[in-house]
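User: Can you help me understand a structure? I only have the sequence.
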Amino acid sequence: MELNKIHLADCMDIMKDMPDNYIDLAVVDPPYGIGESGGKSRTKKNRPNSHLSKHKHEKKEWDIKPNKEYFDELFRISKNQIIWGANYLSTLINKDSSCWIVWDKNIGGDQADCDLAWASFKTAIRKFTGHPFIGTKGGLTRIHPTQKPVVLYRWILQNYAKEKDLIFDSHSGSGSLAIACIEEGFNYIACELDPDYHRASIERIQPYLDQGKLF
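Assistant: Let's start by predicting it. Here is the structure, written out as tokens:
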């Protein structure tokens, strides 16, 4: 399996080729099935001319919950897991844990105050606070409707990954986790099925690769 690459592929095909416990830490953000695949205007309805605002992201059809087979494969190939959207996916994860990660988005308005991740570690609940637009010029350079900040993933790697761990991302999207791995010096395997997001994420991470920060 080629390392340090965002593979344009279905994650199920990639995982089926991996032996048991091949991955040290899977940090995944699968679709939640809540209709966030783009084509929405985030302008508040009570603002003048809100109906004229352009959609921030092209409407696509990727926001469909993964099935049980996805989680069976994820738990088979990885020793530890951090799974975003676990409040929507709890019946599929179907595992107790004392360790949850709370991302306090500090955003206000009509969006959710926090995002939740289930984690396989035997530690207490931890919280990261940071606006979703950190490092994106106020959101102007966001390339994905559910893009998470690189600093969030760097914090996760600093607190939950061990030196020389191999990191896996099943739904790479904007490539934020790949960038965090480059910045923190971890090998990774990432997958993205949509060719538009794949191309945009490759363009996004190229400057980090050019800087030679990996090892």
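Now, to help you interpret it: The longest strand covers residues 78-84. The chain is about 30% helix and 20% strand. Let me know which part you'd like to focus on.
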